[in-house]
Amino acid sequence: MANGTGGTRHSWRTRAARVLLALCALTALFATATVPARAAVDTAPQAAYLADRLRENPVHVTDQLPREVPRSTARDFAEVAERTGVPTYVLVLPSLSGAEPGLLDAVHARLGRDGLYVLLDESRVTDAVAYGVDAPADDASTVALYELPYDVGPLRRFERFAEVVAQGDAKAAARAEAAREKYDDGAEPANAYIGSTDRSEQSAFTGVLLVVVPLLILVLVPYVRRWWLRLSQAPQPKGAKLTKQGKQNKQAKGPVVPKASRALCWSVAVLALASAVAIVVAAPRVYGQTRSSWSPPPRAFELNARLDRVVQGLAEDPVYADPESPRVLDAAQLDRLQSRIGAFARSEGGGPVFVSLVPQLMEDESGGDEAAFAAAIHDKLGEDGVYVVADPLNGSIDVFNYGLRLDGYSLAFELPESITVGDANAVEADDHLMGSRLAALMSVLDKTERSDEPMTADSPYPVTDAVREDELPPLFGPDFWSALFPGVLVAGAVFGVVAALLGIVGRVVRRRKPKPAV
After folding, report:
1. Which of 392, 389, 415, 416 lies closest to 402, judged by CA?
2. Would you place residue 320 in the very low, low, confident or very high pLDDT band (cuts 50, 70, 90)?
């Protein structure tokens, strides 16, 4: 009986536990069904690629930021890295490319070398970790962030970072604390560079100054001389007065001021001319900046480096995934997309499809213009087809038709936003649901109306000249010349104010002087 009762109790407890587990499972299933899933991106291929680059060279500068960080600056970063006093490995990547946590850990594990690993983007040090070496990486990052203006660029920040690392733990910690306190008090460093608006103001001020100063010298010096001579001479008595020639003057209204000598006139003219020359010579020294950024002008090979590697990849495979960015397509999604592309190429009115999973950045060779990027890839590849530009960092998808018999209007303006931008789930997902959205795009291409004649996307707008975009307008440019006439008005206004003040002073002084006897 006892055994039977114990068995019954054990069975009851087992059933209760199973019911409880079932309820927990249903709760978990309901929660996962109501909350959008965040698909994780695969950073292993990115880490492996970057580790291979560091194995070749301890400094890797991306080819995706030629407008801001040209690859030729790698030598400068390498020279700075030697100042840290420890083995230093440097990665310069677009900001979102290195946003995944643990990227440096993964790169270090792949590379298998101890040292100081530093990750920078187009403006600052984004991460730094010391593996097996003594280096105050966190404090150095803090100092580099707070002690310098935001626009100094990554190389200057890395220089400050290396300087602090070389000082050791104690000094680095004290310096970081001081930098934090100063920043918290609102003492932010002033900008290191000016923009075109600032240059316009400098040019206008120089133009006004060039007119005002010489003009005031020419008119104020004689005027002040006459005012002073009248003020210093005694008042004339009322009544008639004979001149040296014996002629009778009319009733005198004030003292007679002799004319300025020829030497004085020439001195005033020379002084005015000298002031104008001094302004012309000194202005370019005072306003000596010629660029609005620290970045050196990129060279042709730097502007073509990324385009060339994308074209080389597309020549071998219709889908090119940027190796410096996290992977947003897994192997199964990639296989299905390649299969769909092949089927579309064999369909009636279809053709090749080239998918570039490459970031579109303001600092890249195309200035972040997807149309310009697609046009450049098409020109270099030399093959007509549908060119798809899919950004793995922000999730956008743009489509351009070059030479296929497809309705270009629908591709340019009628693609659903769920494909081009993505819905709320795509925005939340780490991989932007790129696999399903590209699959949906292929379905749209299959159903796109065929045209009688091949169609081509409109030519993109001209891209800003990457070599000259950071050049400031000349100081003696249009704003300078347009400020000359306002300078005349300013000089007239200043002269009027000075004359009025001198008149008031003269009246006050004369009233206080005793009148001469008649």
Report:
1. 389
2. very high
